[in-house]
Amino acid sequence: MPRAKPTPEMEEEAEEVRQEVEGTGEADGSPDAGDGGGEEEGKEEEEEEKEVSFDELGLDEQLKRALRKKGIAKATPIQKEAIPLILEGKDVVAKAKTGSGKTFAYLLPLLHELLKLSSEGRIRKPAPNAFILVPTRELCQQVYNEASSLLEFCTSKLKVVQVTASMSDKDITVALSGPPNILVSTPACVATCISKGIMRGSSIKESLSMMILDEADLLLSYRCEDDLKALIPHIPRSCQSILMSATSSPDVDKLTKLLLHNPFILTLTEVGRAKDDVIPKNVQQFWISCDAKDKMLHILALLKFELIQKKVLIFVNSIDAAFRLRLFLEKFGIRSAVLNAELPQNSRLHIIEAFNARLFDYLIATDDAKTKEEKQTDKENKKETRVSRKHLQQTLDAEFGVVRGIDFKNVFTVVNFDMPPDPAGYVHRIGRTGRANKTGASISLVSAEEHSTFEEIEHMLQEVEKKDTDCISPFPLLTKDAVESLRYRAHDVARSVTTRDIQEARRQDIKNEILNSEKLKSHFEENPRDLDLLKHDKLLSNKEIPAHLRDVPDYLIDPKTKEASNVVKLSRAAMGIDKPQRRKRQGFKGGSGKSRDPLRTFSAEGKSRRRGRKDREGEPDRRKKSKKAES
Ligand SMILES: Nc1ncnc2c1ncn2[C@@H]1O[C@H](COP(=O)(O)OP(=O)(O)OP(=O)(O)O)[C@@H](O)[C@H]1O
């Protein structure tokens, strides 16, 4: 397949993305170049650093007990740096990559301080003491869960509540009565509460001592700017502000200027790693070149021959594509669930929890799938019209899907069934694996039409990581024979999944989930931890799966594929992830696990293919192309 040479536009765009993910701070309005003369401090860890325990950070004993229960003993680099600064009362902007533990980096010092104030009887009352603002309702739930779990052993009763736009005014009023010590919400919802008088500005001024903006890089893309601006007059000058972000971008800089006073800026990468990585080193990135019409066939081969590690998060670019894939896999006896913005919020939250608890292994998700052209049109429309809040919320749900910033637990493999529209989307997607220093992998299925995007992503990664070799390698375990052995069946079955089936499945799924949602609501009020009530991966079709599709006959599996599949199984066993570990929380695993990973050492295609990238059908060596482009 001919590969696109990077055009000047691509180079320019890669540079923009590099700034976005790397944060060179060159953009106008960067706090680094800001006028406040803040205490600027780029913390770039290059030397091997000493691990720090939570004891050494001087945190409250009750919080440490909750951490121990989770199996967490050592602080991550961002926690090690941010916690002391926050405890000192500084405004902090913390930028650290996805999955690096930013949530505890602000929750622990916040809870520590509130516990201290509470024990000294110095809690101020008329409104919450802290706001934690996040872009989506899913993230509200996630942060609320994390905060509640940290308070498990606390004797003084700190109250945390989450308030979202889906709640009635009456429910919000009840939730805010007391008032709670910590309010987890979205900027839009807090602004509404103030404008409706549910929360009084003067009370906020009296009580608020800390405001945290989490996932700050996403906040402005959720059009929260006006809501944040509406909040500013009510924030007391003494309020400590914290801003957490996975990437640097002009949006983050804008928020920093808007809300923080002389902040301490922490830019952290992993200890001992190249400072410019945007994808953690413990995540191996692969790609497979295939025709668009053969993508189903390829994913079937990957899953059926067990060539990738579970759990698997599969990204597609539309809800229809998600259901098409789910129906297709179902016909081969592979169960999966679909996570999309169309589902009721309760169901979305429950799907994420059920997946995290390993009740099923394959989750097909849609995310921000808009093309650049669509985004441009949106931008232009945004300037012209002012949409209603309700419409805005619907648009946002549809636009951003439900996965950004979500802490999916123990996802080993992220599959880009469809390529994301841009490099930033790629970074966010891949960030769902390799979290908390665990080993992970990503596989992108790249069609001819997606090659320019793929080139753009590869180019960005090389630029950012200052490499002249490929960052994404060809996937070594899937042979042509393995793919061909399933071609006939796959095409047959793919053809049998009609547009009507997909529409019907979508309707059915929403119907099920709405029913579930009602059940969930009352059930989870009483049994918040009971995840087994509902299954999100139940069959969409009620036809029985023919045996010849469910089980691949032995004669169809070529020896190399058998060997590859065994290696993957062995590696699963070696990593101790063979059995589902429901609801078991894990701490960091030491090291990247690379030495135990067969993907590093095994190639189903043989040595020559591994060495000679240019042997791939019609694909010239990409390194040469990049060099050419540079010259
Ligand atoms: N010190 C620690 N040791 C082990 N695990 C940790 C530690 N701190 C956090 N974790 C776990 O790491 C995972 C990722 O943490 P978190 O969601 O806070 O990352 P993040 O940096 O906010 O990622 P993102 O930018 O994608 O939202 C969580 O499952 C969390 O429980």
UniProtKB/TrEMBL annotation:
Annotated motif Q motif, positions: 52-80
Enzyme class: hydrolase
Keyword Nucleotide-binding: yes
EC number(s) reported in the record: 3.6.4.13
Chain intervals with Basic and acidic residues compositional bias: 614-631
Every DEAD-box RNA helicase Q domain range: 52-80
Keywords, ordered alphabetically: ATP-binding, Helicase, Hydrolase, Nucleotide-binding, RNA-binding
InterPro entries in the cross-refs: DEAD/DEAH_box_helicase_dom, DEAD_box_RNA_helicase, Helicase_ATP-bd, Helicase_C-like, P-loop_NTPase, RNA_helicase_DEAD_Q_motif
Catalyzed chemical reaction(s): ATP + H2O = ADP + phosphate + H(+)
Acidic residues composition-biased segments: 37-50
Ranges of residues in domain Helicase ATP-binding: 83-266
Annotated spans, Disordered: 1-57, 572-631
Family of the protein in this entry: Belongs to the DEAD box helicase family. DDX56/DBP9 subfamily.
Protein name according to UniProt: RNA helicase
Organism: Urochloa decumbens
